[in-house]
Amino acid sequence: QSALTQPASVSGSPAESITISCTGTSGDIGYYDYVSWYQQHPGRAPKLMIYDVSNRPSGVSNRFSGSKSGNTASLTISGLQAEDEAVYYCASYSNSNTLVVFGGGTKLTVL
Amino acid sequence: EVKLLESGGGSVQPGGSLGLSCEVSGFTFANYAMSWVRQVPGKGLEWVSGISASGGKTYYADSVKGRFTISRDNSKKTVYLQMNSLRAEDTAIYYCVKDHVWSPKCNFDSWGQGTLVTVSS
User: Which residues contact B71 (CB under 8 A, 6 or more apart)?
Assistant: First the structure.
């Protein structure tokens, strides 16, 4: 069982917006502003999409945005495109023995 | 261009040992923390271990503590993961990842292609 909780799947139509939630605890998401999001296409390594809750690395589309409220972080993808179909993982720094915790992943389907 | 190239994966029997290496290029290696993240094929991601930029601090997931050792050689631009007392549940693709800063956080901005470790009798 993953330390962070994500929905198993979400879906949306092209041009729509979707939001993926990631729920942790007061020892990880709720305490630190070190939350990141990764996109993984089949057979590929994950790719960083958001870091430090809401920052986008160079080259990542501004259709991707991140936020946090309490113990829950969120990834929003606006203007959905077919190439956004992938599995998305959240991660957080943690004050537990395990320094970094991941969510179980959310499969995004673009209808 | 940032590149991370893992090597050393393969098959090993339970209780055996295996060492992974990750040689990097395209950035100032000595300035950044590095970690290993693993993924059982078809499953989710699990952080395994991390090391600070200087190599002075190391961190481990509870699942591997006491069995795995992370190290780095900044002169060779290489990070290592020595895995001992391997178990079937250690079977996974192991990714070498670069952090965004000098101390491991969770901002892994570059990933290797991964190397498969299979623990089976």
Answer: B51, B55, B58, B79, B80, B82
